[in-house]
Amino acid sequence: MSSPLRYQFPILQESANGHPLVWLDNAATTQKPRAVINAVSSYYENANANVHRATHALSAKATHQFEEAREKVRQFINAESASEIIWTRGATEALNLLAMSWGTTHLQEGDEILLSTMEHHANIVPWQQVAQQTGAVIKVIPLNDKGELDLGEFKNLLSRQTKILSVTHVSNALGTINPVKDMVAHARKMGAKTIIDGSQAVAHFPVDVRDINCDFYVFSGHKVYGPTGIGVLYGRHELLAEMPPWQTGGEMIERVSFSGTTFNRPPFRFEAGTPNIAGVIGMAAAIDFLMEQNRSSLMQHEQLLRVRLENGLDRIPGLHRIGTSSKKTAVVSFVVDGIHGQDIGTMLDKRGIAVRTGHHCAMPLMEALGLSGTVRASLGCYNSIDDVDQIVSALKEIVEELGRERDYGKEIYTEG
Ligand code: PMP
């Protein structure tokens, strides 16, 4: 049975390699519902103008939609004020902004930045750059064998030297949901600022930044059924107010003269140049789409599919699931003895099934797991039991076929 939501996503009516498309690469990016596509084209057809600047009607219309979208994001994550919502190109740019603006001005030699083993490169590399510039040191929370953060070690690593805790809400490679509310409470007791990377969370369950009580929260539009090139940085107002701008130019200033420049207030201080207006409007439509759904039924649906997929995979000889926490989103990562993940991905693609293979931009995690990569199937709101059953039966065939080739190869090698 296919999901009723599937029909709202035009691309899911397409075929891939002669088969109906089965999109199981939602952790990389989600497909867009008709409402998002329409909102983007309607902006260009009816409201295209630069925002905040002109006196004419189109600019007023575009500005209204743009600022309405900011308010929508505020409600979506329950921030206190829309001025705490900054538009970025995505989670990567939001994390870079924090590292470069907050990090370079607040960190000193010997200060500690606490990250976790399961971070995406976007939450590692900016901190390495800042550490190099400031002399701060990066500490890393290890994992247990289920692919969960080792919370005992987390507490041992926290100290008065910890100035930043920056961790992902959900692992993009394993799907593990981290207990971020608890972690934030511990970090705050030590006086650390807290950043949560919500890129893999917001599409799958409701997020309340005031309940988590974090200082900053980031995510990308394209992983929550919105457009690419747009993302969000939430920051507590009092922290944003004392942060210097990162990028400079138009829009972010209060007054410019050759004797000096004063800066606009947040959020505008952090939005230099013409923003991705169509992206912002598309993002608002994506949030509307999600908020119109019964989110607890969606969560249940995705969990049901994950368990069905896990049970199916567990019956395939030589296949090992990686990351077996019971608190997971619908991400299933696995390896197969003696068969390269890329070969599996290619053969699934021939059957119209899209998964991701490789290190998933989490090389330190792969290193900690002793793997070069995994095959990752990640589910979204429009996936169905049919999709799950198709990948399971395709994998059975593929593993058998590639396994025969592998064993035949071994025979030739030992005979020769
Ligand atoms: N963090 C996590 C956990 C992610 O999954 C991703 C995207 N794979 C990012 C950060 C970076 O997001 P973007 O490329 O959209 O900036």
TrEMBL record:
Keywords: Pyridoxal phosphate, Transferase. The keyword Transferase applies. Residues 22-390 form the Aminotransferase class V domain. GO terms for molecular function: cysteine desulfurase activity. It comes from the Bacteria. It catalyses: (sulfur carrier)-H + L-cysteine = (sulfur carrier)-SH + L-alanine. Its EC number is 2.8.1.7. Its cofactor is pyridoxal 5'-phosphate. It is an enzyme of class 2 (transferase). Belongs to the class-V pyridoxal-phosphate-dependent aminotransferase family. Csd subfamily. This is cysteine desulfurase. It comes from Parendozoicomonas callyspongiae.
